[in-house]
């Protein structure tokens, strides 16, 4: 779970697995900890019959399983259930529980389109690209998209571009990154646009972009230097030989290998500037 948790109750032999994230929990304390830190991902569907069976059989807490079952049938039952779970652990302080309650309240008042974006963001975070892209596409064609700010809509386009990079739809990603920057004015969207051009060796498009965006020499140098840093880091990996042979692979028709090495480089870049990959 990423943090030492003192567990006082039963430790399950078989874990409960949250489908979206793949995270396994073995105790009541771990369950509460997971919910507290992943509230945006929690859905009614997470608490199906297998969940209550796990609580009753693996944690030996049939009393809690029976108590919690009926909550989901009530209005705001999901909120009440997750709060009840956290309180049952004796793990969280009063201030932490109050903070959690405020987060739940804020989530409940979000516009439906913002809730959908938040859900899509979580899918992207856990690399569930198909589900994330579907939700983002639903957002941009919906009438509710007008309720988003220019920055929010730009961030949707940015995240769609991230998915299209992963799927090697590079030209589509290029358009989305630059459209995203036009709307959100986020430096990361612009930087990734130029990174993508350089990665594909589109030097003319790179220079046209520099002129269109009226970039200073300092900023262009910063982009190129950043790319050089990533390239230098790549030299230390076993894939470096393949990377420097990219032009040869493409010229000799080895398209599969060509795209594989590009995908590898993109993955490394994603790790370098992870915070910028997913726009809020």
Give a structural overview.
This protein has helices at residues 28-37, 49-58, 62-69, 77-87, 94-108, 112-125, 129-141, 150-166, 170-184, 187-199, 203-212, 217-234, 240-244, 246-251, 255-272, 274-277, and strands at residues 16-17, 24-25. Helix 1 crosses helix 4, helix 2 (49-58) packs antiparallel against helix 3 and helix 4 (77-87) runs antiparallel to helix 5 (94-108). The chain folds into 2 domains: 16-108, no CATH class; 112-277, Alpha Horseshoe (Serine Threonine Protein Phosphatase 5, Tetratricopeptide repeat), CATH 1.25.40.10. It is an all-alpha fold and 280 residues long. A two-stranded antiparallel ribbon has the order 1-2.
Give the topology.
Elements: E1 16-17, E2 24-25, H1 28-37, H2 49-58, H3 62-69, H4 77-87, H5 94-108, H6 112-125, H7 129-141, H8 150-166, H9 170-184, H10 187-199, H11 203-212, H12 217-234, H13 240-244, H14 246-251, H15 255-272, H16 274-277
How would you sum up this structure in a few lines?
The protein has 2 domains: 16-108, no CATH class; 112-277, Serine Threonine Protein Phosphatase 5, Tetratricopeptide repeat, CATH 1.25.40. The chain is mainly alpha-helical. A two-stranded antiparallel sheet has the order 1-2.
Name the poorly predicted regions.
1-7, 272-277
Instruction: Supply Rg.
Output: 23 Å
Number of domains: 2
Form type: elongated
The tally of beta strands, per DSSP, is 2
The average pLDDT is 84
CATH secondary-structure class of the largest domain: Mainly Alpha
Under the CATH scheme, which architecture of the largest domain would be assigned? Answer: Alpha Horseshoe
CATH homologous superfamily descriptor of the largest domain: Tetratricopeptide repeat domain
Query: Structural class of the helices, strands and pairings?
Result: mainly alpha
Amount of beta strand: under 5%
Q: What is the number of helical segments per DSSP (H or I, 4+ residues)? A: 16
The profile of the biggest β sheet is: 2 strands, antiparallel
- Widest sheet: strand ordering: 1-2
